[in-house]
Amino acid sequence: MTDTAPSPSVVSDESPSTDVRRIGPAFRTTHPLASGPVVSPQTTVDGFVETFLGELNYGQGTLLSQSTVNDQYLALARTVRRYLMADWLETGARRRQAQQKTIGYLSAEYLLGRQLGNNLLATNLQDIAEDAMRRCGIDIAALRAQEVEPGLGNGGLGRLAACFVDSLATMDVPCIGYGIRYEYGIFRQTFEADRQVELPDSWLSLGNPWEFPHPERQVLVGFGGRTETVTDAAGVERSTWTPDWQVLGMPYHYMVPGFRNGVVNTLRLWSARATQDFDLQIFNSGDYAQAVRAQTFAENISKVLYPEDSTPQGKELRLQQQYFFVACSLHDFIDNTLPADFDLRRLPERIIFQLNDTHPVIAIPELMRILVDRKGFDWDEAWEITQACFAYTCHTLLPEALEVWSVDLLGRLLPRHLEIIYRINEEFLERVREAFPGDEMRARRMSIIAEYPDRAVRMAYLATVAGAKVNGVAELHSQLLRDKVLPDFSQLWPEKFTNVTNGITPRRFVRLANRRLSELVTDTIGDGWVTDLDRLRELEPWADDAAFRAEFRRVKRENKERLVKLLRVRDGLELPTDTMLDVMVKRLHEYKRQTLKLLHIVSLYEGVVSGRVPAEDLTARTFVFGAKAAPGYHMAKEIIFLVNAVSDTVNADPAVAGRLTVAFPANYNVTLAEKLIPAADLSEQISLAGKEASGTGNMKFALNGALTIGTDDGANVEIRRLVGDDNFFLFGMTEPEVERLRPGYSPSSYYEENPRLRATIDLLASGHFTGGDRRAVAPVIDNLLHQDSFMALADFQSYLDAQERVDAAYADEDAWSRSAILNVARSGFFSSDRSMRDYLERIWHA
């Protein structure tokens, strides 16, 4: 097997002269600096100050006395970066020498959060950095606040990816995270007249000290064009693809440090560039816009996370994004990471690519194209290699979230890949017909190519056919994935399907986000729990200790005070500190049922304004929402408007002052989550049973001492089992009950039969919260009464009953504290370190 032609997709000889591969071999092997150890700066306060001032003077080009806060932040970040560099370079050298199997994590999202605090924690430099800045007359808190969070994810999927790469570094597992360096990332959310407005998230505008651009490793990626069959010198017919246009992918490297173990892995994010940025002749003719058209066109690919795809152009751009980053990633590993003489028959021994949802699934035909068209493998051998190199994680139960791409679009943009998918499908359907003879309907159901309503490629099916393993992300989700989403496939290949329940990193979401609780835990059970979260079980006996419960309450109160101060400065919100903090933060989607939470709030308010319930009988609560709606998701935006409208009215009404407060801070992100979650008393996890894949916010709240009110859905099932029924507020239908009710479900009947629900909806519909404008609330009300796809009205009474149990439990301060402590003690299972061990054992075998 030989490479029949030079790759059109890999930059090599045309790389810039700065390519380190051009350095003379004598220097590389004989000069003492070529392979000698890289020494970190001195790990003392004096050493830190010296390095910081050097970065300020020679990196930023300014004196301390003249520096801005941004100068100081960038110098501090680069100082911390220097302490990581030696470990990063040593880790890379060790990985190359050992030739270990690597995890290639392919994800369209990485919701990293701010890096400064995390990297100070990982390097154990927090106290030294604080003392060093104090000596320089600088408040390190101001520098932390200066950092702009990279908005490279939408929610749970991106935060999960960030947790996973953190855990793999902490466990010293070789991993390269691959994704896209979105120039603007997820939009910045603001509210105007209570409605969501999306603004660009210019997270790169003041500089990003955590990334390393590597233009010498650029990859050329093609689109469009045509394919043809040619006969090579050996008389073998081979396909070639001649793209119409190409873009360059430039990698930016980010360090992913393990927790105080000297290991630093790599996150490699790709940015799109034009092959020719600037046409001088056109510019000189006076058409300045046309002169940079190629640059603008190419850079659109990595401009924005998830471009709005309600238009054909938006759909095409999304597919361009997906192919762009996986093509860059595969070629980078095969051509730039593996040794030049590596036998690709052994590729599964060196890499397994984990497909984080369907976004990267186009990588499957891309690897087949590399092996068959470029490297000269025969089809069967290439397919065997490919099947061993991919595994697929499904993150949804919603049919509309399982991506499909129209055959027309795929054929126009990636014609060779469509040919490969057709052949994969043909051979797969032959196997289906052999396994189930005479069952042609089954073959039609399982076909990767859907025929109705339009011809389209079902990416989840392609991933299932090609992947060595398919996993769900919670026990219930994995069961429903096998039984309802992909039942035909699980019958054909039961051994392919497994479960790995999601997890979160305790470094960021306990140790960093909740320093007060972390110190209490360490003082009580000692060090080591941050990398062995099962040790939290040692806290269980302390739940019965009155002094410990009092200290636990002090920590929660201080976290509330910290949150209140933040929201006062950040959003101009004034919140009380002596109420139950009832929190619902997650992406705005109807199945997550923010409307059900809203109905509860309005029901409490209606009881007071109607005179049915004295205000003093209400448990004092502060409700906090955090959510972004996708720009094209009209109903989600209407729900946001209604939550804000209710907030305006409730907060201004003296009848419920001090009893009910509603807050919806804009632009919920990781940085806000790190302050909000440790302060929360009650975690709202109220999706319709059978719709939430897992959730990770539910885990963060439990680990930080909030009690959960929730349905038996996603990872709630496992949380409830672990923390105990007495420490979890369960309500609502089960998934089988939902399915039994669905065929004859009539939401209006619940409205007619439940006086409290009717009074609640009537108050909303009357325009009470919108200045008398009934039309403003009509979209949400009409949807609830006539459609209610996610059965909020059916679960309303059960939810209210559960909330009354919450009120009763919260009234007993000691009992509530005991339950909260047990939630912390029994949630160690939800560490992402455990998730990674499960992946290693069940899927990766690395």
From TrEMBL:
Keywords tagged on the record: Carbohydrate metabolism, Glycosyltransferase, Pyridoxal phosphate, Transferase
Protein purpose: Allosteric enzyme that catalyzes the rate-limiting step in glycogen catabolism, the phosphorolytic cleavage of glycogen to produce glucose-1-phosphate, and plays a central role in maintaining cellular and organismal glucose homeostasis.
Listed PANTHER family: GLYCOGEN PHOSPHORYLASE, GLYCOGEN PHOSPHORYLASE, LIVER FORM
InterPro entries with a match to the protein in the record: Glycg_phsphrylas, Glyco_trans_35, Pyridoxal_P_attach_site
Principal EC category: transferase
Classification via Gene3D superfamilies: Glycogen Phosphorylase B
Keyword set includes Transferase: yes
Cross-referenced SUPFAM superfamilies: UDP-Glycosyltransferase/glycogen phosphorylase
Coiled-coil region: none
Any Pfam family hit: Phosphorylase
Catalytic activity annotation: [(1->4)-alpha-D-glucosyl](n) + phosphate = [(1->4)-alpha-D-glucosyl](n-1) + alpha-D-glucose 1-phosphate
Cofactor or coenzyme needed: pyridoxal 5'-phosphate
UniProt name for this protein: Alpha-1,4 glucan phosphorylase
